[in-house]
């Protein structure tokens, strides 16, 4: 308990020092307001435009969550097929690595050409960018089962379905969570970057990325900072949620599962 | 069902095993194990003793020779066998109870019977107080008990044990040795036990097969006859020491060649 209090105090002290440094830079170098607003101005911008900020946050959250949910579902299915059919894995696994190297900025215009710009298009971008880590980690977990455990199942005449669902899949759950943790971060980034290209200005559809672009064109630097802050909050919430679920499902049996700190 | 007692539990003739083009792991192995016999395969590492177990279990195929288990091929006889591995090989996401039930579950035994069997086994191996614990909460000896209980759950007639106690401290090992004999006396299975510990082999076995390496082959055979019941007292008897020293001598010969 005391240890935890010290950790929190440390974090707060670093944050306070960061704010002070920020303010000092403003005072010493006389940076104009439209280049770098003061911390207090950012707080005021958050307060003044809270409803639209929250709205943008909700839209980006929806896009990232949609993309992430799709990549977990598709990624898990692909990994199960890879685990069950070695030849499919040999043939297709290299391409999933390619998926990881696809520059999202390069394909975003294509997505817009095929779909209308908007929440769905951005979700697709978040999905594409977050798929690879789920496939890679889950496949690894499914196929790296101890040989004697497989032998044990064979001794009891296990079917290949029993092997998959009673041995390989539960064994891969910790790896699946590692994949989701990585994917949750890049799904949020994917959604924000996606909005820069495929965001829509229609009422109720402008997420954080789109709003940052708009605020930048209006030189609303304080609001841009507020939006960046919201993006950080969103990324952190995703990570925290995933870590909580990981702990919830694994802490009883798995060594590496620890309480979110 | 089981053939009559006249059919040996295991009958191995002219067995050869070789992986790829590497030198043979096993060469001309002939071995017959009677029903309800406890035999131990004893030998230095690399003599192929674990490979013999895997061949009996049908987990790998021989390059030459035949193996019959109760008159059947290993694959057909599988449901009469249980295998205990060197590591406890428990599923970490299952509780002790769920781990013991695994074999029954895979063989699609109905839930009610499964629960009854598992409850009986928890009692038998003294694990009742940790029934709902996960493997990571158990000591090495406890994990091995769970592993043995899981193997016994499917009521095997043949137990294949691959150095199950090699990783345990001596006290735990001695205690589990006594327990293995108690369980066998109650349930009457045949056992093929692999170890590299002479005292363990002498204490457990009706017969000890000493194997020599390069290529793995049978070097010598000892019938173990000890006075009285096999409990901790017998370990200090002169008969025990006499057999142990003869077996140890034979084991040293295999290394000198």
Compact summary:
Chain A has 261 residues and is mainly alpha-helical. Chain A has 10 helices and no strands.
SSE succession of chain B: EEEHEEHHHHEHEHEEH
Number of domains of chain A: 2
Uncertain runs of chain B: none
Low-confidence stretches of chain A: none
Write down the overall mean pLDDT of chain A.
Answer: 90
Measured between the Cα atoms of the first and last residue of chain B, the distance is 44 Å
Number of β-strand runs of chain B: 9
Order of strands side by side in the largest beta sheet of chain B? 5-6-7-3-8-9
| The top level CATH class name of the largest domain in chain A | Mainly Alpha
The greatest inter-chain interface is formed by: A-B, 21 and 25 residues
Description of the molecule:
The complex is a heterodimer of chains A (261) and B (257). Chain A is mostly helical. Chain A folds into 2 domains: 1-31; 42-250, Orthogonal Bundle (MetI-like fold), CATH 1.10.3720. Helix content of chain A is 82%, strand content 0%. Chain A has helices at residues 2-29, 39-48, 50-84, 86-101, 104-114, 119-143, 147-155, 160-198, 208-217, 221-250. In chain A, helix 3 runs parallel beside helix 6 and helix 6 runs antiparallel to helix 8. Chain A is globular. The mean pLDDT of chain A is 90. Chain B has a single domain, classed as P-loop containing nucleotide triphosphate hydrolases (Rossmann fold, 3-Layer(aba) Sandwich). Helices cover 35% and strands 21% of the residues of chain B. Chain B contains 8 helices and 9 strands. In chain B, the strands form 2 sheets. Chain B has a 6-stranded mixed sheet, with helices on both faces. A 3-stranded antiparallel sheet of chain B has the order 2-1-4, with helices on one face. The longest helix of chain B is centred in the C-terminal third of the chain and has 19 residues, at 238-256. Chain A binds chain B through residues 146, 148-149, 151-158, 162, 166-167, 170-171, 173, 252-255, and chain B through 54, 57, 59, 78-79, 81-83, 85-87, 89, 91-94, 102-103, 105-107, 134-136, 154.
């Amino acid at each position: 308990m005391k240890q935890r209090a010290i950790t929190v105090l440390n974090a707060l002290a670093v944050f306070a020092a960061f704010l002070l440094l920020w303010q000092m830079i403003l005072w010493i170098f006389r940076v104009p307001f439209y280049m770098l607003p003061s911390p207090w101005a950012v707080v005021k911008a958050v307060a003044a435009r809270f409803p639209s900020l929250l709205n943008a946050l909700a839209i980006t959250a929806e896009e990232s969550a949609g993309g992430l949910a799709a990549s977990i579902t598709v990624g898990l299915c692909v990994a199960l097929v890879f685990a069950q059919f070695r030849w499919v894995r040999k043939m297709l696994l290299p391409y999933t690595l390619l998926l990881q190297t696809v520059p999202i900025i390069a394909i975003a215009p294509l997505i817009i050409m095929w779909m209308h710009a908007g929440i769905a298009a951005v979700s697709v971008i978040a999905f594409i960018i977050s798929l690879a880590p789920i496939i890679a980690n889950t496949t690894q977990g499914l196929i790296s089962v101890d040989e004697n455990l497989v032998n044990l199942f064979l001794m009891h005449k296990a079917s290949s379905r029993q092997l998959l669902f009673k041995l390989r899949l539960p064994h891969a759950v910790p790896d699946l969570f590692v994949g989701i943790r990585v994917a949750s971060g890049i799904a949020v980034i994917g959604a924000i970057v996606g909005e820069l290209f495929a965001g829509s200005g229609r009422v109720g559809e402008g997420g954080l990325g789109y709003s940052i672009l708009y605020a930048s064109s209006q030189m609303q630097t304080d609001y841009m900072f507020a939006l960046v802050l919201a993006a950080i909050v969103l990324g952190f919430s995703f990570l925290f949620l995933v870590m909580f679920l990981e702990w919830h499902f694994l802490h009883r049996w798995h060594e590496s599962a620890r309480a979110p700190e | 069902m089981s053939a009559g007692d006249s059919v040996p539990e295991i009958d191995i003739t002219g067995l050869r095993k070789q992986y790829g083009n590497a030198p043979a792991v096993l060469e001309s192995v002939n071995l017959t194990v009677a029903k309800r016999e406890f035999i131990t395969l004893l030998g230095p590492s690399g003599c192929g003793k674990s490979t013999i177990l895997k061949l009996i279990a049908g987990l790998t195929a021989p390059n030459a020779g035949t193996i019959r288990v109760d008159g059947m091929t290993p694959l057909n006889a599988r449901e009469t066998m249980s295998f205990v591995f060197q590591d406890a090989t428990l599923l970490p996401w299952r509780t002790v109870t769920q781990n013991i039930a695994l074999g029954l579950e895979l063989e699609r035994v109905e839930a009610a019977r499964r629960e009854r069997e598992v409850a009986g086994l928890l009692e038998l191996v003294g694990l009742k107080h940790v029934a709902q614990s996960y493997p990571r909460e158990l000591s090495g000896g406890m994990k091995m008990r769970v592993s043995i209980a899981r193997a016994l759950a499917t009521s095997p007639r043949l137990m294949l044990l691959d150095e199950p106690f090699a990783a345990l401290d001596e006290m735990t090992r001695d205690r589990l040795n006594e327990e293995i004999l108690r369980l066998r006396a109650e349930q009457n299975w045949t056992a093929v036990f692999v170890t590299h510990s002479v005292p363990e082999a002498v204490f457990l076995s009706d017969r000890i097969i000493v194997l020599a390496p390069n290529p793995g082959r049978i070097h010598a055979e000892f019938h173990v006859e000890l006075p009285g019941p096999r409990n901790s007292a017998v370990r200090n008897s002169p008969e025990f020491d006499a057999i142990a020293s003869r077996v140890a001598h034979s084991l040293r010969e295999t290394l000198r060649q």
